[in-house]
Amino acid sequence: MQHILFVCTGNTCRSPMAEAILKNKNINGIEVKSAGIYAATGSDASPNAKQVLAKNKIDHQHRSTLLSKAEADWADLILTMTTSHKFAIQQQYPEAIHKVYTLKEFTGADFNQDVIDPFGGSVEVYEKTFQELNRLIDKALEKIAGEKA
User: Fold this and answer.
1) 3-state secondary structure 2-54
2) 13 assigned to active site
3) Pick from 11, 19, 46, 124: CA 20 to 30 A from residue 36's CA?
C-alpha cells in the first residue's frame, strides 16, 4: 500500500481537492490524505472547493488537519502545492526530506513549481485549480506506475 499525502497552507482548498481527485480515481494500493502547514484542525473545505468538486461529481467529506509528525511519518510520498510548503516540511521534519516534492516537481515541471492558490477567488478560479490538479495527479500516477513496473 502506498500512502500519499497532499499538503497546502490551510488544508481547505488545494490539498483537499487533490485528495478528493485521487480518492475518486479508486486506485488499488494507494491511500491518500491531506494536511496543511498552518491548518486549523477541523475546518470544512472552502465553499468554492466543495462546489467545484460537486460540479465534477466528486463527493468528499473533509475536515482540515494540521500537518504533524504522524502524517509525515505515515506518508510514503508527500506532494506539496508550493516550494515554500516543501521547504517548511523539510525544515520541520528533516527525516522526510527524501519523500517531499512539489506536485509539479514530481510530475516533471522544470519551472514554476507552485499550484495556483484559489483562496478567496471565484468558482472559476477554483475550477482552474481543480483542472490543473487533475492533470498533475494523472501525470503523478503515470510516474508512480512506471516506478512500480
Assistant:
1) EEEEEEECCCCCHHHHHHHHHHHCCCCCEEEEEEECCCCCCCCCCHHHHHHHH
2) no
3) 124
